[in-house]
Structure to design on (1007 residues):
């Protein structure tokens, strides 16, 4: 009886699925997007144009997309894992060759009038691929080193491509995301140590094969002081803006640093400084708590899920979100070197918003289908 | 079941590890929050200060320096527009590349490059640094056209000091020069490009009045230093206009009359001490200091025996010679040791102790009273008078007349000269010899005075008032105290004594047998009172004197005696006093006297003290350099 209840087959009618969506979680996301609206309104000098209004429209579109994906059967999603990964890989290869130069790195590709950042798509695809790979893996097979070779390759190939863009920030996040997936899947501790050893060698190997201008970009990235009028200057200004907020902040629209163009990319990567400056420590910690709740919510969905695929997908999405948040905020505080990582749902930017909402859609699908019976073999068995 | 068991194990591992990851995330987010607390709450104040400095930039605006006008409104020191190129280091991407490109348009010397580099490092990066001043229109246009290659270079217009009369007023007006680092430390407004500070003369004396107050604009700037909006504006206060007592036409006449001599002449309004002319020869071009004087120019001045930078009128010191005799006479009369009728017999020399002191006239003057002593400038009469009254009475009277003592002249660098006393000599570890007193009686020995003191002395003898010489008449349009005769107190000398001395001075010029017959004014309506003086710069040896053919004009120039003359006129209603000192001019009567006569004639005809309005006669302006 007990088991039967646990493994009950949920009803597949649309109404009950919509009911299954965690609307509390959706509310958290809306709240975060609201923070984004306020910050972007301020970043535009107290106007909805050009950032805040478009931000809301994108979020609305993203929300529809997310709910749509949430209603898609998790087993169908699992079947799309490898195709999604391959498409992302092709796009990543294309961007390396034909991509637009943006902010000193090739990150964007024009696809049917839509700017796509394949590295963002790749992170979701990677989560899906790794989840589906480990979903099929028994405890014994995970212990087998040979079984781990294909997923390691699946991580390293896109990471190498992203490094070449060069977008070291995203490359490191992608690698960390992959490592977290391996860890959650149950790969033994010592194997991580083993994996960590060749990383410096691989890094130096990659570096030595880069072109001069690519190396220069990486050098600048690693040492912002070497370019004091560029990235290093941004960090100084960002810290001043954040720190000058004090305990309670200067008040909405009263921030001076952002408005006076001291902050470059204030509406994208450095949006958190606007919050910190105008709403102070109280405001930034509140936003930090909201971000933390979204991460915890994602992890809770992972823990509640009854199938390994769903668990790993939810875990991966939550970790990916966390990595975004942590890297972005640490970056604007000057704790880690700068690297084009936006603050999800707050920063201005269409492509990132869409991929983030796709991720949350997958997370919600895991939640909706948390109790779905999902064999470890082929899912159409 | 096996699969379920595996699954359970796998789930357990996942749960543990997911919770571990969550713990790690919590630690990292906590770290972020802690760092935020550190930045925003603990260090918040510091960052707030930084943010404020970032946002608000105070831009100082240089005020125009106050002009100097003569008593009739002729500009002696003014400002003209100065097109200049400035460099804002903050706005350059490559400082040396910008300067290289600039040098292709307007050549920059190595020392200029060095100065620019030094100033860029000295100032904060947003403070403009002068690259080049006094640009021509052609240079300006070339710089504007090439602006894209010259990031950080901007062109603006400031003002620069000009002296329309050049050398004529160099020692009175002085000059300005770029501020030193110490000046900038005292007043940040001096860091503005093109600012000059007074370094000599009235430019230095009234520097703070002339400088004005820098205006300040507080502007909100973005990170690029671009001005977003103006927050606050404090208008600068232009420097005060300085009105001098000088009469430019008279000054020109004085300098013309001094010719090529190393000489100086001072003309005072004797009633109030206003300096109507202060001429010094040789002179220099004060505008040379404006851009900084070259080393070559410095050494040229330093090696010139005629010291063109020295303001002889206030800082040249000379033994007064016979011009000092009125002071000795006044000291004796006021001490009631002699009376106007007391006579002294001059046989050509006087023996005091073991020493013999000679009169300038070999055969002697015979019996003379005081008036006669002055008229003939009899040395023996004054040796004897000095011997009777002693050095301390002489010194006290000299000080009352402004000789060898500080005057309230408003010029920096004025020297006090020297008036010896018994106490001073004993303080030096020597006894005061009677011989020292005797030579002091004819204004020789240790006594040293400046030409300005001599003119003041003449004015005080003429009026009996303690007039102080001064150049400043109006400041910011307001007449300064001291321009009225009543502003000056009486010297407290008896009119009877003064009358005798004045009569003696009148006799020198106007009576047959006076020592300076050449100085009689060529106009019946004015009579001048005066006194000659020839002060030895080297003791005349016994052999030279007794050889009989001693002729000072045959000495090398620098050993010849100085020629002096003091005078006032008109005799019956004293209005103008003057002194003329011609260095190594030999004879007061033959060299300094005629100069004094011509200047006095000129001043009486102009009568600058009687007029305040602009003169009818045009004053020649120095032509602008090409």
């Amino acid at each position: 009886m007990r088991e039967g209840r646990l493994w009950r087959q949920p009803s597949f009618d649309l109404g009950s699925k919509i009911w299954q969506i965690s609307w509390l979680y959706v509310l958290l996301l809306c709240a975060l997007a609201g923070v984004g609206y306020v910050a972007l309104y301020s970043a535009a000098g107290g106007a909805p144009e050009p950032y805040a209004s478009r931000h809301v429209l994108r979020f609305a579109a993203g929300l529809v997309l997310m709910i749509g994906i949430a209603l898609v059967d998790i087993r169908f999603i699992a079947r799309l894992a490898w195709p999604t990964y391959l498409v992302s890989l092709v796009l990543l290869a294309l961007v390396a060759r034909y991509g637009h130069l943006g902010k000193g790195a090739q990150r964007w590709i024009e696809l049917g009038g839509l700017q796509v950042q394949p590295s963002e798509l790749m992170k979701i695809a990677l989560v899906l691929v790794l989840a589906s790979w480990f979903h099929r893996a028994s405890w014994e097979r995970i212990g087998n080193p040979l079984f781990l070779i294909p997923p390691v390759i699946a991580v390293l190939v896109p990471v190498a491509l992203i490094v070449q863009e060069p977008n070291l920030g995203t490359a490191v996040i992608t690698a960390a995301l992959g490592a977290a997936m391996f860890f959650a899947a149950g790969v033994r501790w010592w194997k991580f140590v083993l994996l960590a050893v060749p990383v410096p060698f691989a890094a130096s190997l990659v570096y030595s094969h880069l072109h001069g201008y690519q190396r220069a970009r990486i050098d600048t990235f690693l040492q912002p002081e070497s370019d004091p009028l560029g990235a290093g200057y941004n960090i100084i200004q960002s810290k001043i803006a954040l720190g000058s907020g004090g305990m309670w902040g200067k008040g909405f629209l009263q921030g001076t640093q952002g408005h006076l163009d001291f902050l470059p990319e204030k509406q994208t990567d450095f949006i958190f400084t606007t919050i910190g400056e105008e709403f102070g420590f109280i405001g930034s910690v509140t936003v930090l708590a909201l971000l933390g709740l979204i991460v915890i919510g994602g992890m809770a969905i992972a823990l509640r899920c009854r199938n390994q695929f769903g668990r790993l997908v939810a875990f991966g999405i939550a970790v990916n979100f966390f990595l975004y948040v942590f890297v972005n905020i640490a970056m604007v505080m000057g704790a880690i070197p700068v690297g084009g990582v936006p603050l999800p749902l707050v920063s201005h930017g269409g492509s990132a918003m869409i991929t983030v909402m796709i991720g949350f859609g997958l997370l919600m699908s895991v939640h909706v289908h948390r109790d779905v019976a999902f064999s470890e073999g082929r899912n159409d068995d | 079941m096996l699969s379920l068991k595996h699954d359970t194990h796998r789930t357990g591992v996942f749960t543990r590890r997911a919770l571990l990851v969550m713990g790690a995330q919590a630690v990292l987010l906590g770290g972020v929050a802690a760092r935020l607390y550190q930045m925003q709450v603990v260090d918040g104040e510091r960052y707030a200060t930084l943010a404020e400095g970032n946002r608000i930039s105070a831009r100082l605006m240089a005020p125009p320096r106050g002009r100097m006008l003569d008593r009739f409104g002729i500009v002696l020191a003014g400002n003209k527009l100065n097109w200049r190129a400035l460099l804002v280091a903050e706005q350059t991407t490559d400082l040396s590349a910008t300067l290289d490109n600039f040098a292709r348009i307007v050549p920059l010397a190595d020392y200029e490059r060095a100065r620019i580099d030094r100033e860029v490092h000295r100032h904060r990066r947003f403070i403009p640094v002068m690259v080049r001043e006094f640009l021509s229109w052609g240079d300006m246009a070339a710089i504007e056209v090439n602006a894209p290659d010259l990031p950080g270079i901007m062109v603006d217009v400031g003002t620069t000091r000009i002296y329309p009369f050049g050398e004529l007023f160099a020692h009175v007006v002085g000059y300005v020069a770029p501020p030193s680092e110490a000046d900038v430390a005292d007043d940040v407004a001096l860091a503005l490009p093109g600012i000059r500070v007074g370094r000599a003369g009235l430019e230095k004396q009234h520097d703070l009045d002339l400088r004005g107050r820098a205006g300040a604009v507080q502007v909100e700037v973005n990170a690029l230093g671009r001005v977003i909006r103006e927050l606050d504006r404090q208008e600068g206060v232009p420097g005060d206009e300085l009105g001098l007592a000088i009469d430019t036409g008279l000054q020109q006449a004085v300098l013309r009359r001094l010719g090529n001599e190393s000489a100086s002449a001072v003309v005072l309004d004797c009633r109030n001490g206003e300096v109507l002319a202060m001429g010094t020869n040789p002179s220099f071009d004060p505008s040379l200091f404006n851009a900084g004087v070259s080393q070559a120019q410095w050494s040229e001045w330093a090696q010139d025996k005629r010291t063109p930078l020295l303001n002889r009128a206030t800082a040249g010191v000379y033994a007064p010679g016979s011009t000092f005799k009125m002071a000795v006479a006044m000291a004796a009369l006021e001490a009631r040791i002699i009376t106007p009728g007391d006579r002294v017999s001059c046989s050509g020399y006087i023996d005091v102790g073991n020493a013999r002191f000679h009169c300038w006239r070999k055969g002697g003057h015979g019996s003379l009273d005081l008036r006669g002593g002055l008229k003939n400038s009899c040395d023996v009469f004054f040796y004897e008078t000095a011997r009777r009254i002693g050095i301390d009475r002489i010194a006290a009277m000299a000080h009352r007349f402004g000789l060898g003592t500080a005057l309230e002249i408003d010029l920096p660098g004025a020297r006090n000269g020297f008036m010896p006393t018994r106490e001073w000599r004993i303080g030096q570890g020597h006894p005061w010899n009677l011989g020292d007193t005797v030579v002091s009686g004819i204004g020789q020995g240790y006594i040293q005075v400046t030409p300005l003191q001599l003119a003041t002395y003449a004015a005080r003898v003429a009026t009996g008032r303690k007039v102080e010489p001064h150049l400043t008449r109006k400041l910011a349009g307001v007449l300064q105290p001291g321009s009225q005769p009543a502003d000056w107190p009486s010297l407290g000398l008896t009119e009877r004594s003064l009358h005798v001395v004045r009569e003696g001075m009148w006799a020198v010029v106007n009576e047959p047998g006076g020592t300076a017959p050449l100085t009689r004014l060529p106009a019946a309506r004015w009579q001048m009172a005066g006194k000659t003086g020839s002060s030895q710069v080297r003791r005349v040896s016994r052999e030279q004197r007794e050889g009989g053919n001693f002729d000072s004009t045959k000495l090398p120039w620098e050993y010849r005696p100085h020629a002096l003359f003091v005078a006032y006129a008109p005799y019956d209603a004293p209005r103008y006093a003057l002194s003329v000192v011609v260095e190594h001019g030999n004879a007061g009567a033959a060299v300094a006297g005629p100069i004094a006569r011509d200047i006095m004639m000129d001043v009486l005809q102009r009568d600058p003290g009687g007029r305040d309005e602009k003169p009818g006669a045009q004053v020649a302006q120095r032509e602008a350099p090409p």
The first helix of chain A runs from residue 2 to 6. Chain A has one domain: 15-368. Chain A touches chain B through 52 residues (CB under 8 Å).
